[in-house]
Amino acid sequence: MGLTIAEKILSAHLVDGVLTKGHEIGVKIDQTLTQDATGTMAYLEFEAMGIDRVRTERSVAYIDHNTLQSGFENADDHRFIGSVAKKHGIYFSRPGNGICHQVHLERFAKPGKTLIGSDSHTPTAGGIGMFAIGAGGLDVAVAMGGGAYYITAPKMVRINLIGKLRPWVAAKDIILAVLRLLTVKGGVGKVIEYGGDGVKTLSVPERATITNMGAELGATTSIFPSDDVTKAFLKAQGREADWCEVCADDDAVYDEVYEIDLSQLMPMAACPHSPDNVKTISEIGKLKVDQVCIGSCTNSSLLDMMKVAYILKGKTCHPDVSLSIAPGSKQVFNMMAQNGILSDLISAGARILECACGPCIGMGQSPNSGGISLRTFNRNFEGRSGTADAKIYLVSPEVAAVSAITGYLTDPSEMLSDMPEFILPQEFLINDNMIVPPVAPEEADKVEILRGPNIKPFPTTAPLDESIEASCALKVGDNITTDHIMPAGAKILPLRSNIPEISKYCFAVCDKTFPERALKLGKSIIVGGANYGQGSSREHAALAPLYLGVKAVLVKSFARIHRSNLINAGILPLTFQNETDYDKIDQDDILSLPDVRNAVISGAPIIVRNKTKGIDIPVHCDLSGRSKDIILSGGLLSYTKDQLK
Predict the structure, then answer these.
(1) In Å, what is the CA distance from 582 to each residue of 533, 595, 600, 610?
(2) CB 433 within 8 A of CB 20
(3) Which of 214, 250, 341, 632 has the fewest CB within 10 Å, making it most exposed?
(4) What stretches of 422-489 show up as alpha helix (H) in DSSP?
(5) Which uninterrupted H or E stretch holds 292?
(6) Is-contact 540 566, C-beta < 8 A?
(7) Order of strands across the sheet that contains 14-16
(8) What is the pLDDT of residues 257-316, one digit of tens each?
């Protein structure tokens, strides 16, 4: 029986366990990446482990999220990350060099290798044939120290792409079609592999757009084969030596197989407030637009900018539309300036933003009250834009550019004639002067770590209690995202290295009184619905509840990364055996888990006793040997320190 692409890479990197679906495996990690919104905490955790030098083939620290320096906090964090990187063997991508996923794709990603990053869109590198996974910062810190990364061996899903996209239909429309097919929960516990004759019609940047938004499926990762298209891209980046062929065996077996005829796709949009609320442009109809934002790690490549510039050249954006464009990297920005694309965009009235995440993470460009914003981004969760009542639609760069001209949501084929062939250059502009290498090991002692006053220690954890009795401090519904739990934005992101301060905003989207109430209670339990914790990899969505005294989270089902982050923080993850029992708990009910520590150790059934209502509720606590030990130790940091003794 043959192997899938993912199975081949995982088998070559397996250091613990057996590659059997549903079983926990430990995987050797070749590369890591962090970004500044998660990086400060990840490096504080790495320091706490007492390891002098990273033990990966390549680790890179990017500054791309918190680039708006409205106070000292972000600048201080950047200096801290830069000094840690210099000392401990990490490459440092300076502010302005670009978005982590775009730069990593250009300069570091390698087919057949493994990558974890403290950002949920790390699977972008799957577009180049890399097994790339988003993870919490603590998992990344452990991997930097040479530790394995543990996941449940995933199911394998094959999506066969046949045919070729019609003019003005984009790679973004492919992943929107997949989201409409599978939903935001459809990829949980699965790897999405793309194959079929249609793959060869897609460039590496287009493939990366698709794997990037695999995160919105809840997938472990998404991956394309590494083929001649991949080789040409790496050669143009001066990295042909990094190429190797990676493909599935002809007789590989998949748990699910789907087929998408590219020639039948139409321009689409994800409507508010979920990436899987997908409709065609014609189904949505003529929608007046207030704002258009082009960029993000999903759609900020040179190819995207070439298409946008072609559409905007000689035109002027509609007077009622605010248009902003953020190139994905300094390489892209430089090449836009050299070939005249940048001038075309400026002439059309676009506001050119720096090479960073910007509006996608709520860092500026918030829409007007009740505004309609078209964005080439990957998420449109309610309030994520920074405007609570804004309505965000996720679209392709082609749809965004045309709509910026007309002033309403527009299918590009309505306005444009034949589409020219957009060809990537045979040689990209290579200039890595904004990537600072670390010092040699013998020079590391001379490097001073620079800490600002906003940088606070990792929250205190403790071994799992013998029994837990606590109030249900909050009850929430289905599809709670990490943006609900720990919001982003220009006001909150600078506090990422200060857990006591950032915890004041925990669940503020759902209940502004929760942080103060939870602190007063001292310890509490959160109850939630299905797909709890979908979205970002931000471990702050676990660390803030930890600081506020949350001991357990009881839900219908978890998103993969957030469940791992809860375990890493020492918070007990529980799921209802019967989802209807969700209705048997109300906020403020007193919940008891008697003798829970012994139950976790022995694997005995766990009962949550609702003392307020006099009801016993059976729950699942699916912990393997290692994750069980982590919970018992009080979190991954304590567990790792014990292992290093």
Answers:
(1) 17, 22, 22, 11
(2) no
(3) 250
(4) 482-485
(5) strand 291-294
(6) no
(7) 14-16, 24-27, 149-152
(8) 999 999 999 999 999 999 999 999 999 999 999 999 999 999 999 999 999 999 999 999
Examine residue 273 and say whether the peptide bond preceding it is cis (omega within 30 degrees of 0). Answer: yes
Q: Give the DSSP per-residue string, 165-212.
A: PPTT--HHHHHHHHHHHH-TTTTBTEEEEEESGGGGGS-HHHHHHHHH
> Which tokens in the block code for residue 563?
């469940």
Residues 6+ apart with CB under 8 A from 619: 554, 574, 575, 576, 577, 606, 607, 608
Tell me how far apart the alpha carbons of residues 548 and 508 are, in angstroms, rounded to a whole number. 13
**Token pair of 214 as six digits:** 């695999």
Whose tokens are 């914790």? That residue is: 533
Residues 136 and 113: beta-carbon distance below 8 Å? no
Phi-psi domain of 61 (left: phi exceeds 0; alpha: psi -120 through 50; beta: other): beta
Q: How far is 403 from 409, CA to CA, in rounded Å?
A: 5
The amino acid present at 88, given as its one-letter code, is: H
The DSSP letter of residue 59 is E
Within 10 angstroms of residue 72's Cβ, the number of other Cβ atoms is: 12
Instruction: Read off the tokens for 313.
Output: 């050249």
Please name every residue paired with 61 in a beta bridge, in sequence order, or none if there are none.
Answer: 34, 92
Residues in the chain: 645
Instruction: Determine if the pTM surpasses 0.90.
Output: yes
Tell me the pLDDT tens digit for each residue of 604-633.
999 999 999 999 999 999 998 899 999 999
